[in-house]
Amino acid sequence: MSFYICPRCGNQDESYLGKKKDGSLYCRRCISFQGEEVQEKPLISPNISLVLNYSLTPFQKELSDQIIKNYLLGKDTLIHAVCGAGKTELIFGVIETCLKQGGHPGFAVPRKDVAKELYTRFQEAFPNAKCVLVYGDHHEELVGDIILLTTHQLYRYPHYFDLLIVDEIDAFPYKGNFVLSSFLKKAVKGRLVLMSATPPEDVLEEFTKENHEILHLNARFHLSPIPVPKFHEWFLFFQRVPIIFYLKKFQKEGKPTFVFVPTIGECECLGKFLSLFVKGGNYVHSKKEDREQIIDDFRKGKYMYLVTTSVLERGVTVKNLQVLVYHADEEEIYDAAALIQIAGRVGRKKNFEEGNVIFFGERKTKAIKEAIKEIEKTNGDLQGLLQKYPQSKLG
After folding, report:
1. Is 127 left (phi over 0), alpha (psi -120 to 50) or beta?
2. Do residues 318 and 299 make contact, with C-beta atoms less than 8 angstroms apart?
3. pTM of the predicted protein model
4. pLDDT one-digit tens code per residue, 265-311
5. Peptide bond into 173 cis (omega under 30)
6. Taking the chain, what is the end-to-end CA distance rounded to the nearest angstrom?
7. How far apart are CA 257 and CA 318, in angstroms?
8. Are 222 and 86 in contact (CB under 8 A)?
9. Whole-angstrom Cα distance, residue 134 to residue 100?
10. How buried is residue 129: exposed, middle or buried, by Cβ count under 10 Å (0-12/13-18/19+)?
11. CA angle 51, 54, 55 (to 5 degrees)
12. Residues 6+ apart with CB under 8 A from 380
């Protein structure tokens, strides 16, 4: 059966192939992706234009112009930008260009929570465009001027997008997923723009090839450095003691806090334990049914801290946020990229550029050292950029 190639996902591994009663073959890798596929393209709404109530920084404007240029030249782009750089703002211009040419742009992310948050931002940026949001249990409407979707839903759009932008390419569940990667490649009819603060090595290697370009942005939009994490060495169980101390301290200072943990079990256990000593908190993870309501309540100030797994590692911006990482030396969960993303939650808002990022562990792992070193390097690169654009300090 090794001659068989799945027409949907390109699988050739015969261990994933099955045989129907009539003798025909099917692929078990992608069989769970069942649903309507878009065949016809929608009519484009007239007079679509970008509306921003703020200006891009000199760094953002330079990259935005280059992304548009690459699109018009038929080149794919990888945007390697630090957490909080304003990656989404970088691609509004190329989306507008695509729309004005009668093209069909899409914006995909691995997680539906992020897609839902971005949907509101896109509606504000393109008020006279029809934006459509598509994810697992939200797919009644599939066509529009701009389609925001999870990477799981890309199978619905074979050879559809003239411009496909994919953010968080290093995030679960997209990272390392053969089927989702295949759906992405099949969905792109025109140009591809990938974005990440921590792009995988294989993607970086791929974009060194001809007709690709890597663009770097080592500056947050407010032009302040990323808070550098501190490491505190404690035995696992005793890490709860300083966490209680810091939660009480931050609570007195009116600073909301995320406490990251490696697993769902530890999330529930630590969340319940901390509630005995520090009031005003809750916990969330991917299996918690009311997590969206809890996160919304946290944003509104109902809770001062959340114990969380990686579900809040990306796509979340909270004013004056502080971050504590319990068992940060859990190497199977916390590689350098994950720790950089977690640290990147802090200092994202203007006027609240500083904050605390504290890793707790029994030992300082290679991943912890690499994460701290990379953030320090990024901050050093920022100083070079500010020397190039000294006037931007006044922005």
Report:
1. alpha
2. yes
3. 0.88
4. 999 999 999 999 999 999 999 899 898 899 999 999 999 999 999 98
5. yes
6. 62
7. 9
8. no
9. 23
10. buried
11. 105
12. none
Could you tell me which residues come within 8 angstroms of residue 329 by beta carbon, excluding any fewer than 6 positions away? 361, 362, 363, 364, 365, 368
- Cβ neighbours of residue 253 closer than 8 Å, sequence gap 6 or more: none
Residue-wise pLDDT tens digits, 278-289: 999 999 998 998
Contact between 274 and 326 under an 8 Å Cβ cutoff? The reply is: no
Cβ atoms of 190 and 157 within 8 Å: the answer is no
- Report whether 30 contacts 156 (CB < 8 A): no
Q: Which of 41, 5, 4, 8 is nearest to 186 (CA)?
A: 8
What tokens does 43 get? 């009519």
